[in-house]
Specification:
By secondary structure, this protein is an alpha+beta fold. The chain has a single domain, classed as Lipocalin. Helices cover 23% and strands 33% of the residues. An 8-stranded antiparallel beta barrel has the order 1-2-3-4-5-6-7-8. A hairpin with a 5-residue loop joins strand 6 (120-127) and strand 7. The longest helix is centred in the N-terminal third of the chain and has 24 residues, at 2-25.
């Protein structure tokens, strides 16, 4: 048990050091002015992402479904399919950290007896006026997602999104398009 605790503490320390050192080097990430959570909830298709270790198993069909809970938090259900067609589902929780705009959230997919020691930044940095697409990032620019209400987006919309990413000092070339088998 001690070794697991030790490993978790090293992970926490490394995560904090990594976030603080990268945040100091980059200008502040700008979020959208306002998010109506009632319009934001529902099913979103991942259009593209910066590859990350916690989605390595995802071969195609990645979605995120958000459900507003009575306490104001948001249930997060991420789903994708592995190469063999098996579904991989992660159930998490999001909480709003900027109640004035609702554009800064934290998400957790790990719980120990109801306690959630790890939270990740989920900042909405681009959002269609009709909530048809969204761009999500983190202050250190290590993570990023392009989401849509449909499994594809027109090229002109993607170009608009890539311009938002560039304005936020993301490199659009870092994003990998998500495969959605039809």
């Amino acid at each position: 048990m001690l070794s697991k605790f030790f490993i978790i503490m090293i992970f926490i320390i490394f995560s904090f050091q990594n976030n603080f050192s990268q945040d100091k080097e980059l200008p502040k990430l700008q979020t959208v002015n306002q998010v109506d959570l009632n319009k934001y909830i529902g099913l979103w298709y991942e259009i593209a992402k910066i590859p990350n270790s916690f989605q390595d198993q995802c071969a195609y069909g990645t979605t995120a479904e958000y459900k507003l809970l009575e306490d104001g938090n948001i249930q997060v259900i991420n789903k994708c399919f592995k190469e063999d067609g098996e579904a991989d589902v992660a159930d998490g929780l999001a909480k709003v950290v900027d109640k004035k705009t609702n554009s800064k959230l934290e998400v957790s997919f790990f719980s120990i007896l109801g306690f959630r020691p790890f939270w990740g930044d989920y900042w909405i940095i681009g959002l269609d006026d009709n909530y048809q697409w969204a761009v999500v990032g983190s202050p250190n620019r290590k993570y990023g997602w392009i989401l849509s209400r449909t499994s594809t987006l027109p090229d002109d919309t993607l170009q608009k999104i890539f311009a938002i990413l560039e304005d936020q000092l993301y490199n659009p070339d870092d994003f990998e398009m998500t495969n959605h088998k039809n």
